[in-house]
Amino acid sequence: MSATTLKAHQKELWGHPIGLYVLFLTEMWERFSYYGMRALLVIYMIAQAGHKDGAGLGWTEVEALKLYGWYVMLVYVVSIPGGILADKVLGQRKAVMIGAFILVLGHGTLAIEAPWAFLTGLGLIILGVGMLKPNISTMVGGLYQKGDIRRDKGFSIFYIGINLGSLLATTFIGLIVAKWGWHAGFGTAGVAMLFGLMVYIWGQKYIEHVGNKPTEQEKKDDVSLVAIFSNIFKSPIHLAIFLVMLVLSLYAGFTFEGVDHWGYGALFIFLSFVVGLMMMIYQSLETRIEKDRILVVLLSFLIVIVFWGAFEQAGGLMSIYTEQKTDRMLLGYLIPTPMFQGLNAGFIILFAVALANFWAKRKLKGKEASALFKMAIGTVIMGIGFIFMVFAAREYGIKGHSGMHWLVLAYLFHTIGELSSSPVSLSFVTKLAPVKYASLMMGLYFAATGLGGKV
Description:
By secondary structure, the protein is mainly alpha-helical. It has a single domain (14-454), classed as MFS general substrate transporter like domains (Growth Hormone, Chain: A). The chain is 76% helix and 2% strand. The protein is built from 17 helices and four strands. It has helices spanning 18-46, 61-77, 79-90, 92-110, 117-142, 150-180, 182-202, 216-221, 225-230, 236-255, 261-284, 288-311, 317-325, 337-364, 371-399, 404-432, 438-454, and strands at residues 12-13, 16-17, 329-330, 333-334. Helix 2 runs parallel beside helix 5 (117-142), helix 3 packs across helix 4 (92-110) and helix 12 runs parallel beside helix 17. It is globular, with a radius of gyration of 22 Å. The mean pLDDT is 81.
């Protein structure tokens, strides 16, 4: 077939489907909006009336970190219903469109200087990310045929888009806030998301073959999740496990300290139902291979929780440490705190393709490491990065401030760890998850990410 007769979705650019670059740009602008807002969130919440960038909410650090933890968790936990809705009703392509639109509204709401706008905007962003994030990643996997060696590299390219958006956001958002104030920064995130939505609408012809809603035959053949979950009442062992988790969740709601104790109770109840559902999905799979694969994916989520539990400190404790305890003067210029979060994204852009090529060459030589091994190594490397923060804390204790080089080294090791773990785990889930549960499993992956952030 000649190049002139290829359909739009069959065309390639630089060895990959053009649809990859449509999703790349959509995700880049979505991540610009997300990381741009995240870079401001905690600092805005604790900023007092005399802050150099203007008054924020004036909360305590404990209050700010608590809300940040809930936000990071919910923004990904909502990926579970977002994935289910895409799998069962909308299809991934339409779900991404709806999510992008909600995100434009959410970031736009944060730009409004009114008491009701802050929590309303965060709520809309949680809903929007829950619809967009798991489904756009599933679509990337759908661009490649089973066994295509380009899949992992495609995810690495997609991952560069994520981090290019983060780098651009953390580079410019801080400067915008310094000149025009907090809400101008939030508004810039909304404009970026609008760009992402426009790119996605324009590129529909290149992705028309992936992420479509289920056909009538697929719906007929499909088993509802409610029906699958109801099978738990036919299995005494699984029912007992579920009931024990449910009772402990209710106990947590009554006994945990703090104003958000019922939030924890509701979270644990939700997770109890998720665990019950996953036990029944596992039981419903027909072949031993499918069961082994989904079990490995679920076990990998434990590594994901540990990794992102440490990594998400960048937007919380490390952000506060940078703002309050780091000497940020360089050549007479005070570097805005959000720019330091851009170090991670900048390092990823520098090293992502090189590391992907390293693993690809080892695969061609028959020396490929398993995905779980790469994820575990990434977690260890990321943990080493915190050793440099120990040295930073010691220097602060002696001098009253610490040097920027400790943050640079910490973010460098966090980045190498992330590159060894995150793109691999994204590809890993799309490879092993049963097709009819693809978006649900991707939603669980991002929920594990969010739980790590809360931890």
